[in-house]
Amino acid sequence: MANISSAIGTLQFEGEWDKSFFDKFIKTFNKYLDDQAGDYYIKISNENFENLEAYINGCGRWSFDNNLSLLNRWVHDYQVKQSKEESIAEWNDLLKEMEAQCLAINVYYCDEESGMELLVEIEGSLTPLQKDNEMILQWSICNEEYYSYNRNNLVALKLYNNDNFELSMEELKNDLYQKFGLIFQNDENKKGTKLTLHQQSQIEKEFNEQPFACESEDIFNELSFLPETI
Questions:
Q1: What are the protein's UniProt keywords (predicted)?
Q2: pTM: predicted TM-score of the whole model, two decimal places
């Protein structure tokens, strides 16, 4: 099974969308691609017609970019409560109407996958296109920016907040004191041996680079100045 990425972002609907088609597009899109479809999905929610905006989220097959590239195939393979031919026909009709009105959708999202340490912001567009006698919703990337996969960036990009992580810095500091009698430079509440600035920096770096560490030992085992903990 492929690794599963997690993405959140926004859609900006470009062109002269009327309310009826705006609602129809989102309803049809979600019918084929939202979280009822399987482990990998794309879901539109919190739509705002006045601003022609919506929220998008999903779980990607390796990456959310992969979802957007495969979405037409997923629609064509949809056979829940209708035949494959009916799915293709409904999708074609929707995209023909979108093309006739010169409509498009700009997509802005952030995607993360811990196994590959993927952390990326992507800007792209979805546009209707006729290909091999069928209409497809073509995904094109306009801009992408990759980030180091660490706690600070995951929080800064609003994919997580600090409460989402199992291990906190406070827990790490307490375990450091209990196990080794070591304290941070600015800790005036405990009597122990103060870390050097270099040692403290090493701990902070390792803590940041292991956002999903389950316990302090996961961090301690990477620090050469500490005795082995296992």
A1: Plasmid
A2: 0.88
The full length of the chain comes to 230
Of 165, 147, 167, which is closest to residue 157 (Cα–Cα)? 147
In degrees, rounded to 5, the angle at the alpha carbon of residue 59 between the alpha carbons of residues 56 and 64 is 75
Q: How far apart are CA 68 and CA 10, in angstroms?
A: 14
Same domain, 103 and 172: no
Is the pLDDT assigned to residue 230 strictly greater than 70? Answer: no
Residue type, 132: D
Domain that holds residue 200: 165-220
Residue 163 pLDDT exceeds 50:
yes
Kindly state whether residue 160 falls inside one of the protein's structural domains: no
User: Average of pLDDT values for 4-11?
Assistant: 97
| Structural domains counted in the chain | 2
Residue 113's alpha-carbon distances to 40, 41, 150, in angstroms, are: 13, 15, 11
- CB atoms < 10 A from the CB of 198, how many? 8
Answer yes or no: is 226 within a domain.
Answer: no
Which amino acid would we find at residue 110? C
For the chain, give the mean pLDDT. Answer: 94
